[in-house]
Amino acid sequence: MKGQGQGLRLYAILYLIFLYAPIVLLPIFAFNDATIISFPLRGFTTQWFAALTDLPTLHLALKNSLIIAVSSSVLATTLGIFAARASTRYEFPGKGGLMGLIMLPLVLPEVIVAMSLLMVLLGIGINLAIWTVILGHTLICTPFAIAILSAAFQSLDKSLEEAAYDLGESKLSTFRLITLPLVMPGIISSLLISFTISLDEFIIAFFLAGSEPTLPVYIYSQLRFPKQIPAIMALGTILVALSVLLLTIAEYFRRRGLKKTGAKDTGGFL
């Protein structure tokens, strides 16, 4: 048993090195004073971060990605609230199958989803633009929002809502005054996770963006130019830092919500 435990520990260490070594190398080369990504390092510099301010196409792509990420996260979380509320509070025919269909994008390859959406949109004569990417990202983010919000609604004591009904509150006022504040940490967590997923998503944006580039699509297009790679490494460093920050905040609000409702923690993002 001792040997087996050491083997599992060694496997975990090697797995973590394989998983995070590229991320660790990203900021190292972003601050390296050389246009060639290789060792040994030449010296420390911040010129590649400064160079990001002189790329108007990057600024347009960032603007598009922020619009898409904010819109998708709000739409996905709104739909997630409705679906999570229905699945945790009500019983109706076909509930299991319907929820399974809603959660299907979690297991479908994104390239299949992107191609299907592209064919449908072009088939009905819709031009590709930012809003078509928002549609695709909302489809992808909604299952994640439902998973987070379902846990928030399940941990909420139903007796609190029943007590509000007994005191004369309507269902709408009970939801607004009692339910919504208690699940607010889950809502904030859903918004942040959906925002992060949309901001980093490439495949659907690549198929549905048309002539409106998003940040991941812009990064992919710049990889053809060796002189741009250091600046892309700097941009990647910023995105990694932003993603970690958003995930940390989302985890904080998730745990805060569990503590607020007294539910058991069954695992989180971090």
TrEMBL record:
<feature type="transmembrane region" description="Helical">
    <location>
        <begin position="177"/>
        <end position="209"/>
    </location>
</feature>
<feature type="transmembrane region" description="Helical">
    <location>
        <begin position="12"/>
        <end position="31"/>
    </location>
</feature>
<feature type="transmembrane region" description="Helical">
    <location>
        <begin position="98"/>
        <end position="122"/>
    </location>
</feature>
<protein>
    <submittedName>
        <fullName>Binding-protein-dependent transport systems inner membrane component</fullName>
    </submittedName>
</protein>
<dbReference type="Pfam" id="PF00528">
    <property type="entry name" value="BPD_transp_1"/>
</dbReference>
<keyword id="KW-0812">Transmembrane</keyword>
<feature type="transmembrane region" description="Helical">
    <location>
        <begin position="229"/>
        <end position="250"/>
    </location>
</feature>
<feature type="transmembrane region" description="Helical">
    <location>
        <begin position="128"/>
        <end position="156"/>
    </location>
</feature>
<dbReference type="InterPro" id="IPR000515">
    <property type="entry name" value="MetI-like"/>
</dbReference>
<feature type="transmembrane region" description="Helical">
    <location>
        <begin position="66"/>
        <end position="86"/>
    </location>
</feature>
<keyword id="KW-1003">Cell membrane</keyword>
<keyword id="KW-0472">Membrane</keyword>
<dbReference type="GO" id="GO:0055085">
    <property type="term" value="P:transmembrane transport"/>
</dbReference>
<dbReference type="InterPro" id="IPR035906">
    <property type="entry name" value="MetI-like_sf"/>
</dbReference>
<keyword id="KW-0813">Transport</keyword>
<dbReference type="InterPro" id="IPR051789">
    <property type="entry name" value="Bact_Polyamine_Transport"/>
</dbReference>
<keyword id="KW-1133">Transmembrane helix</keyword>
<comment type="similarity">
    <text>Belongs to the binding-protein-dependent transport system permease family. CysTW subfamily.</text>
</comment>
<dbReference type="GO" id="GO:0005886">
    <property type="term" value="C:plasma membrane"/>
</dbReference>
<feature type="domain" description="ABC transmembrane type-1">
    <location>
        <begin position="62"/>
        <end position="250"/>
    </location>
</feature>
